[in-house]
Write a structure and sequence with these properties.
It is a single-pass membrane protein. Keywords: Electron transport, Endoplasmic reticulum, Heme, Iron, Membrane, Metal-binding, Microsome, Transmembrane, Transmembrane helix, Transport. It is found in: Endoplasmic reticulum membrane; Microsome membrane. Pfam families: Cyt-b5. By secondary structure, the chain is α/β, with parallel strands linked by helices. It has 2 domains: 103 residues, Roll (Flavocytochrome B2, Chain A, domain 1); 29 residues. Helices cover 45% and strands 12% of the residues. The chain has 8 helices and 5 strands, in the order H-E-H-E-E-H-E-H-H-H-E-H-H. It is elongated, with a radius of gyration of 23 Å. It binds protoporphyrin IX containing FE. The site of protoporphyrin IX containing FE has 20 residues, from helix 3, helix 4, helix 5 and helix 6.
């Protein structure tokens, strides 16, 4: 219980870092965590108090709920409730899809991750050079 009060002061500090794996382990009524704007919140105790009902909340447990939260257009009052539930900052990819993409690229975010084959550039230059030789040399 006292955890919630001490955590409230942790909003701006660099608390523990959570990742997608840890987050996704808390997706039930017994333990519901949510990612909102790169911060992880334990909303378990708030499920029954949520003015919008617990069902909409339960759908977002264990994942990035930022879009759902913002789509509703929550008031400042609602945002002021967040520090009480703050657990820590989030680190790493925010969805299974993003995680897969990162793993496929060895975690790199270079040009290779955009799907643009990096060898295209030197091959084009070579092809242009050969064409020039054939036509003009
Ligand atoms: C910890 C996170 C959340 C807090 C503290 C919170 C708080 C609140 C509060 C105080 C309200 C009353 C209206 C307002 O003041 O804006 C509300 C309404 C509502 N919330 Fe949340 N909420 C949270 C997360 C979510 C999520 C993830 C959803 C998912 C869709 C959601 C959906 C709704 C809906 C549908 C309403 C009803 C809006 C209406 O009847 O006009 N909330 N929430």
């Amino acid at each position: 219980m006292s955890d919630a009060t001490t955590a409230a002061s942790g909003e701006t500090s660099s608390g523990p870092k959570y990742n997608l794996e840890t987050l996704s382990e808390h997706k039930t009524r017994e333990s519901c965590w949510m990612l909102l704007h790169d911060k992880v919140y334990d909303v378990t105790a708030f499920l029954d108090e949520h003015p919008g009902g617990d069902e909409v909340m339960l759908e977002e447990c264990g994942r990035d709920a930022t879009e759902a939260f913002e789509d509703v257009g929550h008031s400042d009052e609602a945002r002021d409730m967040l520090p009480k539930m703050f657990l820590g900052d989030f680190d790493g990819p925010k969805s299974a899809k993003a995680a897969k993409r990162a793993a496929a690229n060895g975690g790199s975010t270079s040009a290779a991750s955009s799907g643009f084959p990096i060898w295209i550039l030197p091959v084009s230059v070579l092809a242009a050079f050969i064409a020039w030789r054939v036509l003009y040399a």
